[in-house]
Design a protein that fits this description.
The chain is built from 5 helices and 9 strands, in the order βββααβαβαββββα. The chain is α/β, with parallel strands linked by helices. The protein has a single domain, classed as 3-Layer(aba) Sandwich (Glutaredoxin). Strands 5-4-3-8-9 form a 5-stranded mixed sheet. Helix 3 links the parallel strand 4 and strand 5. The protein is globular and about 45 Å long.
């Protein structure tokens, strides 16, 4: 799958384009909902690893369908130090195959699937992570970038 360029606002209303980050590694992660247990763990683990990502030239971008206002509260509450992008229309989420049927406590519903794309500095998807573990995912991605840089 090729990357699809997009423009989405972050928690401060600043618009980000995927193409703005050409020349950098991009960790484009999709998560279900602000301020929920798994999403908070994942965001905080990326936050805590930001120096390591920056050191190897990587940009973290989180995406969910929550509003800019929701993202702002979430980012401020947990002192998130990277852009979390709002995609209320779900257009980008669907384009990156991160919307689908989920199961929880015996019921099925549509929602955001926790997926991540690792995109190289040339804009090519190098790795696709499905149904990630929010606790170990950031270190897994860091390790993969390091091994791919060699």
């Amino acid at each position: 799958m090729k990357t699809k360029d997009f423009e989405l606002p972050d928690q401060n209303g600043k618009v980000h384009k995927l193409s703005d980050y050409k020349g950098k590694w991009i960790v484009l992660y999709f998560y279900p909902k602000d301020d929920t247990p798994g999403c908070t763990k994942e965001a905080c683990n990326f936050r805590d690893s930001i120096d390591k990502f920056q050191k190897i030239g990587a940009q973290i971008l989180g995406v969910s369908k929550d509003t800019i206002a929701s993202h702002k509260k979430f980012a401020e509450k947990y002192k998130l130090n990277f852009p979390i992008l709002s995609n209320e229309t779900k257009e980008v989420i669907k384009a990156y195959k991160s919307w689908g049927i989920k199961k929880f406590m015996g019921r099925q519903f549509e929602g955001i699937i926790r997926n991540t794309y690792l995109i190289d500095p040339n804009g090519k998807i190098k790795k696709f992570y499905e149904k990630v573990n929010p606790l170990t995912h950031p270190s897994e991605v860091l390790s993969d970038i390091k091994s791919l840089q060699v």
